[in-house]
Design a protein that fits this description.
The protein has 282 residues and is an alpha/beta fold. The protein is built from ten helices and eight strands. The chain is globular, with a radius of gyration of 19 Å. 39% of the residues are buried. The structure holds flavin mononucleotide (FMN) and iron/sulfur cluster (2 copies).
């Protein structure tokens, strides 16, 4: 059985979770392959690698963006080959979403449903509380320094539970009802949100030509190769709004209203009735 860890972590929070799972699996003498999608957009090649493996446990790691998983992670799940039956016992999955304490939205639901449609049992899931990556200038970002030892301890436990399931056939996937933790109000709100809608609300990532020195730092750091010189850096439709370009620019050439963003995020977190904890679902 090969464990394939598929992730995209623009700001590094999700990566801490990936590393914990990898460490736990390696210590248990498991065969581990990490597929990091950061600046690695050959989704076809990645899908081929994943589909080419016969017996596998696929671990999907995504941050929650606008209440859903990142499109790149969903694209990989969508490109998976469908198992003949749900009980084929060849391909399994584990789904993990890191969220910034506003709402984990429908991230786990979306991944679960797509995997279920491919007859791939989900053996476990987790929503991991992490520092909100849009608040890097804030003196007190939501969930500062998270995920911490305690959160990663839960991930360690989840990994052992999955290994235990795999070594005790028949292997049972979790039921969808386990992930049905959002209130109707939150579900309805989450259904109306997504990255494309957010992109229409926020200013596009276009460098201010009066500030930009064409140093190229933003282009080099963009996780999804969305920035192009046009003639100054400008994001194309692949942009996921991670703000890495804003963070790295030495000239502050990208517009970003820190104060307003901080206020908006604090308000949304206050309005959300989701408990602000890391949870595992087995
Ligand atoms: C564009 C954008 C949208 C986000 N949307 C949400 C959200 O809907 N709910 C939430 O709790 N956190 C949200 N976050 C915060 C991230 O989910 C959280 O910080 C995550 O840990 C980032 O992962 P990373 O550090 O691996 O990039 C968002 C962050 C960004 C940049
Ligand atoms: S253009 Fe900027 S905000 Fe958009 S994905 Fe690239 S680094 Fe992130
Ligand atoms: S990092 Fe800033 S200054 Fe450098 S190319 Fe990008 S926008 Fe221009």
């Amino acid at each position: 059985m090969k464990h394939i860890l598929i992730s995209l972590s623009p700001s590094g929070g999700t990566k801490k979770v990936v590393d914990k799972v990898a460490e736990t699996l390696t210590k248990s003498d498991q065969n581990v392959l990490k597929l990091d999608l950061y600046r690695n957009v050959n989704l076809e090649a990645i899908a081929d690698t994943v589909n080419g493996e016969k017996e596998k446990c696929l671990w999907f790691f995504t941050p929650v963006y606008a209440d859903h998983p990142l499109p790149q992670i969903m694209d990989i799940i969508t490109s998976l080959r469908t198992q003949k039956t749900y009980d084929s016992n060849k391909t399994f999955a584990v789904i993990i979403a890191s969220w910034g304490g506003v709402s984990s939205g429908l991230a786990l639901y979306d991944m679960y449903n797509e995997l279920r449609s491919k007859n791939i049992p989900v053996l476990g899931a987790s929503k991991v509380l992490a520092e909100h990556s849009s608040m890097w200038k804030s003196p007190k970002p939501l969930n500062q320094h998270k995920p911490d030892k305690n959160d990663l301890g839960k991930i360690h436990t989840l990994t052992y539970i999955v290994l235990d399931k795999l070594s005790n056939p028949p292997v049972q996937g979790i039921d969808f009802s386990v992930l049905d933790y959002q209130t109707d109000k939150m579900k309805k709100e989450a259904e109306q949100k997504n990255l494309e809608i957010t992109k229409q609300i926020l200013p596009p990532k276009i460098a201010d030509k009066t500030k930009c020195t064409l140093c190229g730092k933003c282009i080099e750091i963009c996780p999804v190769f969305a920035l192009e010189y046009n003639p100054y850096p400008k994001a194309n439709s692949n942009c996921i709004l991670c703000n890495n370009c804003v963070k790295v620019c030495p000239e502050n050439a990208f517009a970003y209203d820190h104060k307003r963003t901080e206020e908006r995020i604090y308000q949304m977190a206050k309005d959300s009735d989701e408990p602000k904890t890391t949870a595992i679902f087995t």
